[in-house]
């Protein structure tokens, strides 16, 4: 009488991870049994490396989470600002101080182009005509229009953050946090390993002082008056 073999059960990712951890821990216990000469200081070094790795992984997860939460919070703030601010087109009247700036001067904005004080005219949300001075690219011709953000009263304000700017800021903050975390963890690990090295040196000196006379045979030599 033939029987149909049951299909093999597929282990879940959690079960596979648990099996790998059990195999790793079993291998570690086997290695410790095979190496009875392993000193406590050697095991302490292994624990220090393991603790540093765990701290780095957990810390990086925290840094990534903080960067994502900060990005979302800044994005909500930018959306709120876009809802209460107004984007309008302002007419360029000319450079505000064309004779006060030497040739080639100007301010850099966003690292792309030089910007200078420029006189512009615009219409406020309430319909009032306004004029003022803003920073605009030096190459902006008179009579052209530039984008301007104003509040309900028609006053120029800082533009809300863009998605690209928010992304760049979140990435930079995450990288800075990761570098800081790695530096702190590395410094703590270096201090711990240095302390263990000093401990190993003291243990070696004590062991040498105890066993060297027996190994060299000096303890069996008669003492001279």
Q: Tell the overall outline.
A: elongated
Total of domains? 2
Whole-number radius of gyration? 35 Å
Oligomer description: single chain
Straight-line N-to-C gap:
97 Å
Low-confidence stretches: 24-34, 98-112
Total strand count, please?
5
- Strand-pairing-aware structural class: alpha+beta
Look at the structure and give the mean pLDDT. Answer: 76
How do the helices and strands follow one another from N- to C-terminus? HHEEEEEH
Strand fraction equals: 15-25%
Number of helices: 3
Task: Report the sheet with the most strands, covering strand number, pairing sense and barrel closure.
Answer: 5 strands, antiparallel
Helical proportion, percent range:
40-55%
Task: List descriptors.
5 strands; 225 residues; alpha+beta; elongated; five-stranded antiparallel beta sheet
What's a quick, concise take on this entry?
The chain is an alpha+beta fold and 225 residues long. 54% of the residues lie in helices and 17% in strands.
Descriptive overview:
The chain has 225 residues and is α+β, with helices and mostly antiparallel strands. The protein folds into 2 domains: 39-85 and 161-213; 86-159, no CATH class. The protein has helices at residues 13-34, 40-84, 163-216; strands spanning 86-95, 107-109, 113-123, 129-137, 145-150. Helix 2 runs antiparallel to helix 3 (163-216).
């Amino acid at each position: 009488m033939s029987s149909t073999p049951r299909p093999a059960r597929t282990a879940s990712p959690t079960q596979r991870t648990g099996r790998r951890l059990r195999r790793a821990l079993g291998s570690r216990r086997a290695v410790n049994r095979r190496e009875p000469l392993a000193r406590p200081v050697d095991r302490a070094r292994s624990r220090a490396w393991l603790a540093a790795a765990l701290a780095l992984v957990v810390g990086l997860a925290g840094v990534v989470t903080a960067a994502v939460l900060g990005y979302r919070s800044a994005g909500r703030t930018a959306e709120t600002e876009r809802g209460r601010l107004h984007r309008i087109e302002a007419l360029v009247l000319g450079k505000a101080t064309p004779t006060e700036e030497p040739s080639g001067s100007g301010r850099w904005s966003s690292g792309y182009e030089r910007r200078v004080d420029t006189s512009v005219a615009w219409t406020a949300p309430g319909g009032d005509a306004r004029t003022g001075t803003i920073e605009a690219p030096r190459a902006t011709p008179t009579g052209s229009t530039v984008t301007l953000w104003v509040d309900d009263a028609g006053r120029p304000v800082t533009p809300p953050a863009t998605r690209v700017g928010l992304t760049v800021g979140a990435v930079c903050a995450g990288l800075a946090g990761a570098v800081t975390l790695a530096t702190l963890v590395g410094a703590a690990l270096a201090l711990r390993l240095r302390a263990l090295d000093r401990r190993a040196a003291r243990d070696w000196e004590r062991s040498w002082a105890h066993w060297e006379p027996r190994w060299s045979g000096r303890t069996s030599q008669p003492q001279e008056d």
